[in-house]
C-alpha cells in the first residue's frame, strides 16, 4: 500500500533554556515538598526558570536563531513564523511579531497559536498546511513558554511541575529543490480538543474575565487519566492514517509532562521505553516548548538521524491533544 505523500520537511532545530536551574532541593527549602516526593510522582529533578530580562519572546528568538544556524539558513529565507505559547509577552501583539522583528525577517505572516501543551503540534500542523498549499516556502515553528510567571509558588501540587524554555524547527515546503528528497517530511497529523474538560487544567485569570494574568490550576489525577487514554487514541489514529505500525517508529518525541504519563502511554501502544525521548527530568513541563526541546536535544546528540520515523505527541489544557508522524 502506498503511504501518504510527505509534506513539509524538517531542515533544522534549535532550543533555548534560561541559565538559572532550580533543583527540587531548592524548592524544598521554600515549600512543603521533597526531592523524593517530586521524583516519585513526576520524574522531575530540576527545571530552568527565566530571570530578569528573559521573556517568552527572547527565548523564542534564541531558539529560532539556533534552528536557522542548524538549517544553514538566514532570517531572509523565512516567510512564515508561528509561535505556540500560553505565556505571551503581551496580550497583543503576537509574540511571533516580536520574534520576527528581532530576527529581521519582516514581511511574511507571523502569529501565535494558543493550545497550551499541544500548541507546538497545532502550530506544526498549521505550518504544514500553509507550506503544502503554497502559502509559504520556509517556516519557523516555535514553542516557547515562561510558565514560571503564571505559577502559584505556594501550591506544591503545581509549582514543582513546570519550567521555562523554547524550542524551534525550520520547515520547508515539499516542492522546493533544496530540501532532501525521498520520503522525508510530515506524513500524518491528527488534532483534537474537548472544551468540556476546561476545569481540570486552566489559568484562573484573563483580560476578558478577570483583567488579571491569573495562576495555573490543575486536578492532576484526572488529567493523568485523560492524558493516557487520549494520547494512546490519537497515536493510533496517526499510525492508521500513515499506514505504518508502532513497531516501525524509531523514536517517540512526547510532551514532557510527567514520566509516569510517558511510561503509561508507551506501554499502552507496545512501544519500548528506550524509543521514547525523555527530558522531563531536567526540563520539567515546559508546555508548548517541551516537544521541540526534546526533538532538538535528540537530534543534536545523534540519537535522531536522517531517515528516522518520528512520532510527536502532546496533550494540554482545553483539553487539546494531537500527534504528528514525520520522517526526519
Cα(first) to Cα(last) distance is 21 Å
* Integer tally of domains: 2
- Report the sheet with the most strands, covering strand number, pairing sense and barrel closure: 5 strands, mixed
CATH architecture of the largest domain: 3-Layer(aba) Sandwich
* Rg of Cα set: 18 Å
> What proportion strand?
15-25%
For the biggest β-sheet, the strand order reads 1-7-6-4-5
Sequence stretches where pLDDT stays below 50 over 5 or more residues: none
Percent of residues in helical segments?
A: 25-40%
Number of helices: 10
So what's the CATH class of the largest domain?
A: Alpha Beta
Given helix and strand content, the structural type is: alpha/beta
Features:
about 325 residues; alpha/beta; Peroxisomal Thiolase, Chain A, domain 1; 2 domains; five-stranded mixed beta sheet; four-stranded mixed beta sheet; 10 helices; about 25% strand
Q: What do these coordinates show?
A:
This protein is an alpha/beta fold. The chain folds into two domains: 164 residues, 3-Layer(aba) Sandwich (Peroxisomal Thiolase, Chain A, domain 1); 143 residues, Thiolase/Chalcone synthase (Peroxisomal Thiolase, Chain A, domain 1, 3-Layer(aba) Sandwich), CATH 3.40.47. Helices cover 32% and strands 23% of the residues. The strands form four sheets. Strands 1-7-6-4-5 form a five-stranded mixed sheet, with helices on both faces. Helix 3 packs across helix 4 and helix 7 packs parallel to helix 8. The chain starts with 8 loop residues before the first strand and ends with a strand. The mean pLDDT is 96.
Amino acid at each position: 500500500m502506498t503511504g501518504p505523500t510527505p509534506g513539509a520537511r524538517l531542515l533544522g532545530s534549535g532550543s533555548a533554556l534560561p541559565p538559572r536551574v532550580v533543583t527540587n532541593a531548592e524548592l524544598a527549602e521554600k515549600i512543603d515538598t521533597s526531592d523524593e516526593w517530586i521524583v516519585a510522582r513526576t520524574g522531575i529533578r530540576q527545571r530552568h526558570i527565566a530571570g530578569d530580562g528573559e521573556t517568552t519572546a527572547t527565548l523564542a528568538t534564541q531558539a529560532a536563531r539556533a534552528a536557522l544556524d542548524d538549517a544553514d539558513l538566514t532570517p531572509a529565507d523565512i516567510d512564515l513564523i508561528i509561535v505556540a505559547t500560553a505565556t505571551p509577552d503581551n496580550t497583543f501583539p503576537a509574540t511571533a511579531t516580536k520574534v520576527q522583528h528581532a530576527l529581521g525577517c519582516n514581511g511574511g505572516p507571523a502569529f501565535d497559536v494558543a493550545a497550551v501543551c499541544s500548541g507546538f503540534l497545532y502550530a506544526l500542523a498549521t505550518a504544514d498546511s500553509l507550506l503544502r498549499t503554497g502559502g509559504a516556502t520556509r517556516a519557523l515553528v516555535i514553542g516557547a513558554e515562561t510558565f514560571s510567571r503564571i505559577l502559584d509558588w505556594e501550591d506544591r501540587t503545581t509549582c514543582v511541575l513546570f519550567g521555562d524554555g523554547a524550542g524551534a524547527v525550520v520547515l520547508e515546503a515539499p516542492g522546493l529543490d533544496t530540501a532532501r528528497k525521498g520520503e522525508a517530511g510530515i506524513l500524518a497529523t491528527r488534532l483534537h480538543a474537548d472544551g468540556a474538560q476546561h476545569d481540570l487544567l486552566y489559568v484562573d485569570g484573563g483580560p476578558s474575565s478577570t483583567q488579571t494574568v491569573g495562576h495555573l490550576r490543575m486536578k492532576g489525577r484526572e488529567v493523568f487519566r485523560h492524558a493516557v487514554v487520549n494520547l494512546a487514541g490519537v497515536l493510533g489514529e496517526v499510525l492508521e492514517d500513515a499506514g505504518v505500525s508502532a513497531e516501525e517508529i524509531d523514536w517517540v518525541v512526547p510532551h514532557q509532562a510527567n514520566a509516569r504519563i510517558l511510561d503509561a502511554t508507551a506501554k499502552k501502544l507496545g512501544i519500548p521505553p528506550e524509543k521514547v525521548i525523555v527530558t522531563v527530568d531536567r526540563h520539567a513541563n515546559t508546555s508548548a516548548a517541551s516537544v521541540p526541546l526534546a526533538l532538538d536535544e535528540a537530534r543534536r546528540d545523534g540519537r535522531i538521524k536522517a531517515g528516522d520515523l518520528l512520532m510527536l505527541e502532546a496533550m494540554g489544557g482545553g483539553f487539546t491533544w494531537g500527534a504528528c508522524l514525520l520522517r526526519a
